[in-house]
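SEQUENCE-TO-STRUCTURE ENTRY
===========================
What this section holds: a protein sequence and its matching fold, both as plain text.
Tokens: labelled as protein backbone structure tokens, with as many entries as the chain has residues.
Question of interest: how does this chain fold, as expressed in backbone structure tokens?
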Amino acid sequence: MELKKQFDLIFKNAEYIIYLLVGVLLIITAFYILFQSLITIIDEFADAEYIHAVLHMIDRILLTMMIVEILYTVRVSLKSHSLCAEPFLIVGLIAAIRRILLISVESAYLLEKFKYHIIEIGVLGVIIFIFVCSIVMLRKEKQSL
């Protein structure tokens, strides 16, 4: 029985260290993306590439939000020692919205792909609806407990 407790303690500590390292890497990644985005946006504005700069800025901000939401999931997992589904649904929701925003800007410049973009936006709309319904259901379930 003592050996089982020691293994349990070793695994808990290893899990904590791994989550901690993942969290640190996510923080570094978020700051790196923001820093590189700032440099790119300044360069694009200097070259009068305003549409590309705005598109890049929206893309990188939403990507950073996804990383922060994953970081939140890691933090919650560290505190509760369980995995929550809601933050992952929110990351999926942000990713789908991010893609729709990018497609809408691309469609203005790539008219030959307009038909495919419309289909993709439709599919993403259904996915967003499913994510939102899932998040609402999870929150209602939490409130009823």
User: Anything to note?
Assistant: The first helix runs from residue 2 to 46. The chain has two domains: 1-81, 85-145.
